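Retro notes - structure team

What went well: the batch runner handled both jobs without manual restarts.
What didn't: labels got mixed up in the shared folder, which is why I'm recording both outputs here explicitly, each with its sequence directly above its tokens.

Job 1
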Amino acid sequence: MINGKTLILRFSSMGDVVMTVPIIRCLEKKYPENKFIFVTRPKFKPFFQEFKNVEIFELDLKNRHKGVLGLFKLFSDLFELNPSRIADLHSVLRTNVLSFLFRMSLKKVSIINKKRKERKALIRDSNKIFKPLTPVHFLYQEVFNKLGFSIDLTKDHIYPASKRLILNTEDFQINSNKLIGIAPFAKHAAKMYPLDLMQKIVSYLQEKNNIILFGHGKLEMETINRWSSAFKNVYSCEALNGFENEISLISNLDLMISMDSANGHIASVYNVPVVTLWGLTHPYAGFTTFNYKIENQFCANRDEYPLIPNSIYGNKMIKGYENAMRTISVEEILGRVNEIIV
């Protein structure tokens, strides 16, 4: 046993926070008597309900912990918890300041090495070094092992059982066929499969399967609700009435189809097969889903669009690359889907 509390810093984004879950499972398995305090946004709390030795410290970035003064209040609040060590899984300005202050207070600190030099080489236009980087899950693992823990994702991780699923039968007339989740949206246009092609996928798969569409926000939900109204076996996540219910449903899926986005990461940590569609980002950047299979990764054609990947997070569109994802054919996606759900 390693004495004392371990503070874990990872504030955003949702996908990155979800990617910590397999690591926490390994820590709980090997160090059940240890206490871990995960510092993150309140909306991410449902991801950690399975753990007995993990406490969530809820950030209040809109009020108490807002701005420079709020950052020092955050340090004060965290210091009062008397942690023995700090695992910074974020390595941004805010957490770097916190890590510095904890080091000045003689606490043991380990900060994720994001391999920024290698990432820049992967996404630059000229002299691009196109080779796979270390998956983020293993970068997280390294942080904890430097603190004195000894975990190995390839040996220590165990998937939990699917969460209990309770559906409102008035909204979901689910039959006994396969349950497929589709998340047709991404935060950035450079990562999103064209909606006209995605509609063809939804239309085909709903004939013999149950389809649940995931999204958020007014514009996304307008499309989702339109498709769920048009197709008999297609349902909107809106009817699930809450994020916890969405997670429960995702854990019971037979398959998830998503962009390079959070929904795929959520599905993967519950051992749900994930088919991921990549636009101007790429699996080589290290943000693949947990225990991914290479045959489930569909990438835009780099022979036609050689500057891919041009960013790590997909927030940059290149002029002339707007149709890059159209090089991923509906037929090849459906072919792989049918192999998985047969």
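Job 2
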Amino acid sequence: MTVLTAYISGIGLLGPGLSSWAASSAILKGTQPYEANKTIIPAPELLPAAERRRASNIVKLSLATSLEALATADMLTTDLPSVFSFSNGDGLNCHSICECLASEDREISPTRFHNSVHNAVAGYWSIATKNMATSSVLCAYDGSFGAGLLDAMTQVVVDDTACILMTSDTPYPEPMHSKRPIPDNFGMALVITPQITAQSIAKISVDVTQEAADIFSDPLLESLRSHYPSGRSLPLLQAIAFAQSQAQSKRVIIDYLEDLRLLVEVTPC
């Protein structure tokens, strides 16, 4: 594979004990202790009232992380291509539809139905941001972050355009939770640009490798990385945080497929 090189110009992060990228970089560097608090998702104020009432947690989560990343990158634009990569989508809505289909009254509400499609989040996001550019919507189970990063980086390099990547996970209720145990809501977003900008945080180069993925020595952070597919992004975010503070390049191996990982080189801007 050709090595893909681009620039991270904005980051958004929201998960248990991680209230934003700005608040979490010190935790990832180990200079502030991690506290495992429940994820608090802000209301999606950019959505019109009707869509706001229908919005699920995965919509709210994607909006929160993407808006933080876009604000950091100073790219609140309506023509930014986007990549959405989710390991399972809206777990609560899937559970509710299954409950309905297992009951005597099997009529599914239109809202439940249109929220059930995997690209529903992309639709809500385009309404909220008034973005008219193309969107890719992916699913690769536990490799969803890696798949999304490769897709976004490829677009940036091949099309010479900026792109935003959003990856999020939301929990299923029981009984599906026992089969797919995602504990809470977790999401992150990256704004990736082909050239360095005034807001660029780090230069990254992505290649594939068969080396083992990096894990955290901190068991609480490792629990986040291993229990949330989008949490596979945390070693990369840690490398960015360290690269910024130490003004030196970092190398990190990120989970992707069972027999293939991503090798990422991070250089501070």
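One thing worth noting from job 2: The chain has one domain: 8-199.
We'll revisit the folder naming next retro.
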